[in-house]
Amino acid sequence: MRHKHGYRRLSRTSSHRKALLSNLASALIEREKIETTLPKAKELKRYVEKLVTAAAKNDLNAHRNVFASLQNKATTNKLVTEIAPKYAERNGGYTSIVKTRIRRGDATQMAYISFV
User: Fold this and answer.
1) pLDDT over 90 (residue 5)
2) How many Å apart are CA 67 and CA 5, to the nearest integer?
3) Are 80 and 52 in contact (CB under 8 A)?
4) How many contiguous H segments (helices) and E segments (strands) does the chain have?
5) How far is CA 13 from CA 40, 61, 63, 69, 90, in A?
6) What CATH topology corresponds to 14-115?
7) How far apart are the C-alpha atoms of 62 and 28, rounded to whole Å?
8) Which end of the chain has the lower number of beta carbons within 10 A, N or C?
9) So what's the pLDDT on residue 37?
């Protein structure tokens, strides 16, 4: 049972979940809008919003913290130099989730996640 569990497990081990969220975050930063399953989108929203908040400080330590999570120089640079400064005045709520369709193969709810 869940009972105050702090995150979605997504039927994965912790290392697999960490890699999944890192890759989804990199794709979102790169393309600024992606389609994924609704539970993954909801968990990704928590992950990306923390990264944007950290990157908004715009110093070397913030850059290193974001890189530690993403492990991708191009997306880290884009987040710190282009995306985070747009949301410097905003207190959270950097992403939005829009439900789209039911996937035909397994009847999973799909959703778009994008930056506001």
Assistant:
1) no
2) 27
3) no
4) 5, 3
5) 14, 29, 27, 17, 34
6) 50s Ribosomal Protein L17; Chain: A, (3.90.1030)
7) 19
8) N
9) 97
Question: 36 with 24: CB under 8 angstroms?
Answer: yes
C-alpha distances in Å from residue 65, one per residue of 70, 73, 76, 91: 9, 12, 10, 19
Which pair of structure tokens corresponds to residue 10? 């997504």
Going by C-beta distance under 8 Å and a sequence separation of 6 or more, which residues neighbour residue 54?
Answer: 62, 65, 66
pTM here? 0.92
CA-CA-CA-CA torsion sign (38, 113, 73, 76): negative
Spatial separation of the C-alpha atoms in residues 4 and 65, rounded to whole Å: 27
pLDDT band at 6 (very low <50, low <70, confident <90, very high): confident
φ, ψ of residue 56 in degrees (nearest 5): -65, -20
Q: What is the pLDDT of residue 64?
A: 96
Three-class SS state of 105: coil
The pLDDT of residue 1: 76
